[in-house]
Specification:
Strand order of the largest sheet: 15-14-13-12-7-6-4-5-2-1-17
Largest sheet: 11 strands, mixed
Number of helices: 19
Structural class: alpha/beta
Radius of gyration: 28 Å
Length: 591
C-alpha cells in the first residue's frame, strides 16, 4: 500500500475464467447451433420425414423371450456397478479391485485416460461394468445356444454404446478439442450429425469425395448387354494376347460391383486385365418397386444368361467364373442346376471369394433371421424392396465399435474432416434389395440351411444337389472374416465333388480379397486341400507374405493356358454385342 493509502496490488486475469472474447465466441457457437437444429427440424417437417432411429438399434431385433430374460438378470449387474461407484465416492478402503486397463483399446488412447484421476476412474469403472455385463450374460441358466448368442450380442452392443468415449462430457479428447477450437469442433460435428440424420445413414467418408466412373470404377470398358436385373461390362484388354477362356465376375448383389475396381492401384479388375484375362463384370441393378416379384430363380437365370452371352459373343465353349460372397452362393446353385441339366461344361472353373453354401456356422448374421426380425423386414419392405441403408446398418452393427461408435466420436464429437477412403465410400454406397428375394434368402439359406440338403431347393424347376458339382473350384476365405466366417466357408470343401483348392487369406471379408500385390500387405496360407478338416489344413499350411492374387492366376492358367489375339469381339463393342455405354454404366449409379 502506498503512502496515499491506496492499494497498489496489480490484479491479474484468472486463467480459469474465459476471456470476454471467448465468451462471445461461445455464445456465437451456441446461437449457430440452435439455428442449425431449427433449420433441420423445419426441413424434416416440410419433407414429412419421421425418425427411424429405433429401427437401427440391434437390440430391437432380438426376440422378446431372450430380451426379457436379459432384463431379469441385468439388475444384479447394475447393483454391483452402483456399489462400486458408491465405494469409490466414499473412498472406502474396501472398494473392489479395479481391473487393469486394456492398453490395446484404441478408444482410450488419449493420455488423460490414465494420467487424469477422474478420467482414469471413469475408464476403470466402465471396464468393470462392461466385463460384468458380459459375464452375467454368459452365466445365465436356461436359454438355448441361439438365445444365448443373441443375448451376448445385445450385451456387447450395449457395452459398446455405453462407453464413456461416446459422450462429450466424459471424453477428455473431445473436451480439449472443444476448448482449443472454442466450440467450433462441436458445431462442425453437429453439422455432420444433422446431415447424416437427413440422409438416414451414418457417413464414414465425405459422400462428395468420390465419383463412380470419375476417381473410382475407372477401368476402361463398355456395357455390352443389359436386362432389367443387370448390366454386363466388358473390359478393354491391355495385352496383345489374352487367355482364350474368358472370366465372368459375379459381385455381391447386396453391394456395388466396384469393390473389385476401386482406384487403379487397388483394382482387381485392372490387375486381372493386365495379366491377360478377358474380363466381364456383372453390375446388379438396385431394386425398386418394379422388382417386388424378383426371387431366387431370377438371379440364377441372370447368371446363366451372362454365361451364355459371353460364350456366344466370343464363340467359346466355356468360361471361368468368380462368385463373391452371396453371389458365390447363387453361383453354386447355378452350377448345381447346370450339372443336373447336363450343361456343366459351360463353366471351366469356379472361384469363390468368401462365399458360403452351408450356413450352420454362419456367425452373428444368423441372429437376424428370427421371427421378430423377419417381421421387421416385412414392415420395412412395404414398397416391395428393402432400402439398402437398413442392410448397411445391420452389417455395421456386427462391428459396432469400429463402424458405428468410432465414427460417432470422430465425426460428431470431435468434428473431424472425413477421410478420403474409397473403400469406406463403397461401404456406404448402398444397394436396395428385392423384398421377396431377400426374405427367401434369409429363410431358406441362413435360417433353414436348405441348400446343403440334396433336392430340397429347386432352380427354375430343377432340384439341385451341390454334390453334383464337379467343376474345378478355387475357394478363398478370410482369416478374420466376420461376414462369412472361415469355418463356414470351409464347408464348401465338404459339399463340392470336383477338384478343390483352398486358400486362406490374411485379414477379413474385404481386405482379405482386395489385396493387390503392389501393396505388399498381409499374407496367405496354402496347404493340403485334401485335408479332412479345417484344423488339419491350418496345421499343415504354409504362410506366404503378400497378395494371393498371383497364386490364384497360376491356378487359373493350370485349368487352361491357351491364348488368343486380343482383337475382334475381344475388344468391347467390336463383336456382335455393340457398346451400350461406357463402363461403369448406369445401373451402378442408380440409387
Amino acid at each position: 500500500m502506498s503512502d496515499t493509502g491506496k492499494d497498489d496490488t496489480i490484479e491479474t486475469p484468472n486463467p480459469f475464467l474465459p476471456s470476454p472474447e471467448d465468451m462471445q465466441h461461445w455464445a456465437s457457437v451456441i446461437g449457430r447451433a440452435q439455428q442449425m437444429m431449427l433449420d433441420y427440424a423445419l426441413g424434416q417437417v416440410n419433407e414429412g420425414n419421421t425418425s427411424a432411429a429405433a429401427l437401427f438399434d440391434p437390440a430391437k431385433w432380438i426376440d422378446n423371450p431372450a430380451t426379457q430374460l436379459w432384463t431379469q438378470q441385468s439388475s444384479k449387474m447394475w447393483d454391483q456397478g452402483v456399489a462400486f461407484w458408491t465405494s469409490l465416492a466414499s473412498l472406502n478402503p474396501m472398494a473392489p479391485a479395479v481391473p487393469e486397463a486394456d492398453t490395446k483399446d484404441r478408444r482410450f488412447a488419449d493420455p488423460d485416460w490414465s494420467a487424469n484421476p477422474v478420467f482414469a476412474m471413469i475408464r476403470q469403472t466402465y471396464g468393470l461394468l462392461a466385463e460384468q455385463m458380459l459375464a452375467t450374460t454368459r452365466q445365465i441358466d436356461g436359454p438355448d445356444p441361439a438365445a444365448r448368442a443373441k443375448m451376448e450380442f445385445a450385451a456387447k452392443a450395449m457395452a459398446d454404446a455405453m462407453a464413456p468415449t461416446n459422450l462429450a462430457l466424459t471424453n477428455p479428447e473431445v473436451i480439449k478439442r472443444a476448448v482449443e477450437t472454442r466450440g467450433e469442433s462441436l458445431l462442425k460435428g453437429l453439422k455432420h450429425m444433422l446431415t447424416d440424420l437427413s440422409r438416414g445413414q451414418l457417413s464414414h467418408v465425405d459422400p462428395d469425395a468420390f465419383e463412380v466412373g470419375g476417381n473410382i470404377a475407372t477401368t476402361p470398358g463398355k456395357v455390352i448387354h443389359e436386362t432389367d436385373l443387370y448390366q454386363l461390362i466388358h473390359y478393354a484388354p491391355t495385352t496383345k494376347e489374352v487367355f482364350t477362356v474368358p472370366l465372368i465376375i459375379f459381385p455381391p448383389w447386396i453391394n456395388r460391383f466396384y469393390i473389385l475396381d476401386l482406384n487403379p492401384a487397388k483394382s482387381f479388375v485392372a490387375w486381372a486385365v493386365e495379366q491377360g484375362l478377358s474380363i466381364f463384370m456383372v453390375s446388379w441393378k438396385s431394386a425398386d418397386a418394379s422388382m417386388s416379384e424378383i426371387v431366387w430363380d431370377d438371379y440364377i437365370a441372370a447368371q446363366v444368361d451372362a454365361i451364355d452371352t459371353v460364350r456366344e459373343l466370343l464363340d467359346v465353349p466355356a468360361v471361368h467364373t468368380i462368385g463373391y460372397c452371396v453371389a458365390g452362393t447363387t453361383l453354386a446353385a447355378t452350377l448345381a442346376m447346370l450339372s443336373a441339366r447336363g450343361e456343366a461344361d459351360k463353366v471351366k472353373s469356379v472361384t469363390f471369394f468368401t462365399a458360403q453354401v452351408d450356413f450352420e456356422h454362419a456367425g452373428d448374421l444368423k441372429m437376424f433371421v428370427d421371427d421378430s426380425y423377419l417381421a421387421l423386414l416385412q414392415q420395412l419392405s412395404a414398397p416391395g424392396f428393402l432400402d439398402g441403408r437398413y442392410m448397411a446398418a445391420t452389417f455395421n452393427s456386427l462391428r459396432g465399435r469400429d463402424l458405428i461408435w468410432n465414427y460417432v466420436v470422430s465425426n460428431y464429437l470431435l468434428g473431424n474432416d472425413y477421410p478420403p477412403f474409397d473403400l469406406l465410400y463403397w461401404n456406404g454406397d448402398t444397394t436396395n434389395l428385392p423384398a421377396k428375394w431377400h426374405r427367401q434368402y434369409l429363410v431358406d439359406l441362413y435360417r433353414d440351411n436348405r441348400m446343403v440338403i440334396p433336392n430340397s431347393l429347386s432352380v427354375m424347376g430343377t432340384p439341385i444337389d451341390l454334390k453334383k458339382i464337379e467343376t474345378p473350384a478355387f475357394i478363398q476365405a478370410g482369416r478374420e472374416d466376420h461376414i462369412a466366417p472361415l469355418a463356414s466357408v470351409w464347408r464348401l470343401m465338404d459339399h463340392l465333388s470336383g477338384p478343390k483348392t483352398f486358400l486362406l487369406a490374411g485379414s477379413g471379408h474385404i481386405a482379405g480379397v482386395v489385396n493387390p500385390p503392389a501393396a505388399g500387405k498381409y499374407q496367405y496360407w496354402t496347404g493340403d486341400s485334401e485335408a479332412a478338416t479345417l484344423d488339419d489344413f491350418v496345421a499343415g499350411a504354409t504362410e506366404t507374405k503378400g497378395s494371393w492374387w498371383p497364386h490364384w492366376i497360376e491356378w487359373l492358367a493350370q485349368q487352361d493356358d491357351a491364348k488368343t489375339a486380343a482383337k475382334g469381339a475381344r475388344i468391347p463393342g467390336k463383336g456382335a454385342k455393340k457398346a451400350i455405354e461406357d463402363a461403369p454404366g448406369r445401373y451402378v449409379k442408380q440409387r
